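Curious: can you check?
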Amino acid sequence: MMKNNLMLERPALNLSPIYSEDPSLKEQWGAYLSLKEEEFSALSVRQAHCHLVSEANWLNRKDARSCVQLGVKAKIGDICYIDFGQAYLNEAGFQHFGVILSFCNGKAFVVPMTSNPATYKMAYDPVECPNGRRHLMRIGLIEGMKKESVLFLNDCKYINTARIIDVKATIPENSALFRHIVNRVKECLML
């Protein structure tokens, strides 16, 4: 049904009980499906892949309280591959790396990141790019990663750790870089 070896079977939906309570829902459901079909047909293969992978992740992970239930153990400072889900314009969405800054009540406070060279070039750096964008923070090449990375400081948020797919690297919690990240996040949040 879909490209990139992602096969989704359409489950049999029995919406009859819902429709009998509110017949207008059948029309609304049909309109929604038509809109989704239009949206997906306009996506590139890459975009469609991101949407479908995220949808499959949500279906498989939505009932998990944490990543531990899924066999993933994450800690503060870990750089994780995360499914952030659908996003609005100018938000980090779908599958991205992110660094964990803290945990609170079963959720992780994460800062999304990218290795996009154009974004890296635009990021503020006191020496190399003093006029760069302050909401972007260069963290360089972290051991365990393949490319230099930049943080989206203005996209930090709490997530259910079930969104964490895998742990890829770590920035030690007691390191100068980790403390610098925390300070930059605080600075960004308080502007």
